[in-house]
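Bumping with the actual sequence this time:
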Amino acid sequence: MLFAINLALTLLVPAHATEGYAADLFMDSGHDLTQREQLYAAEALGLSYDVMLTDDIDEQLQIIAGSAEDPNGALLYPDGAPRYRVIYTNGGSATGHGTSLGVDGRQRVRDFYAGGGSYTGSCAGAFISMLHYDVDDYEANGPNEPYYHLWPGVGDASYTGGEYHDLIFEQTSHPLVAMYTSLSDGLVSDVYHNYGCRFDPDHYDNPPETEYLGIVDDPGTSALHGYYNIMAYKGSDESGRVVVTCSHPEGHSSGEQLDLTSAILQYALDGLGTPWAEKGMITRDQHIGMEQDDERIGDGQLHYWRLELPQRTEAATITLSDLDADCDLYAAYDRWPSPSDHDYASERGGTQDDLLVLDAPQGGTWYVAVYGTHEVLDGSAYTITGGWKQAPEPEDTGLDSGDDAPLDWDGPRGDLSGCGCAGSAAPAGLLGCLLGLALVGLQRRED
């Protein structure tokens, strides 16, 4: 998608986003950055992506920090979870761009990363990810305010532009390098460098988790030769991974430089954090309302709930109601469900209630997913309700287990109280009542 001057969204790349995200990648081509519209590596990886293509500071602030239409900003869902899997930031002026985003815009990027989204970029996109580009100034004045401070380390400015250099990878078994056979020889030739940064593990006491890759081989340029060109860092399991390059391989649509950019991007994606924390437990006959601004479910987002069912559960129901926009409902045993992987699904359109009926479900931990299939940027409210009917303990027949033991228990079903289905008991108990009322839109996955 492309963020136009009027904030309208138009489809840029006809690819499907990974489930749970509005799109896979957000490309920052904003104020003081290269106005790039196309990212070849994203397309090579089959990613969907949105582009913020504007030099207008006010418009940029509305996109990143929020507007009346989308108060969360483009990077975050209403509950603060990342709306994309990764941010890519173009070259340009890191200080100029960070300044134009303001305090609120920079904080949105930090929240995105802390919430599990990854980050990558080239040249200015690398500078802006760090604490500072100058050790002396950092020690005297602290972090450079316009930077994001995602990597709590200090890089170094090369003050060298218009150069082409080779990159040598000593660790050809590193996951980033091993992704493509074109990189397996440990050499990428003629990478363009234009006043980007450089990395030296001995330059400053940077975090020990920092990974340095791609040594510059350019004997004629002392400001680059022998320095590392690529830096990767993942601070915790919850955060994403930062992977940046000081130079510019991203403009190539083929060859080993395309593969290098794709590998950088993929390594960032492989370092995603855990953005989908469970929303809570569904308890019997409790109506859980998700209607506050920070509770609503965003476009393409997944909300996960846990459901603990007792043994001998005859049937269970999960209801999704009070919708502002279209949402779907999924359930799976002992795993998080999704539109492509589930045991039960209810996919009614519009704001109709969704209902799942679990027929004699296995006792234990079930997971329920609410999926926002709408395009409402500030999300949809909903109410989720669970209920179940448990069969009584079987009577003790006095028989030992074995050939003389009864194979099936056919005890009394009881009435339908406690599960939200009014009326007298039917021969099929709760399940018959529910199936008779609400099979429309209900699907059962058959493996």
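The tokens above came from a reply further down the thread. The helical segments are 40-44, 57-65, 94-114, 124-127, 135-141, 175-178, 255-269, 429-437.
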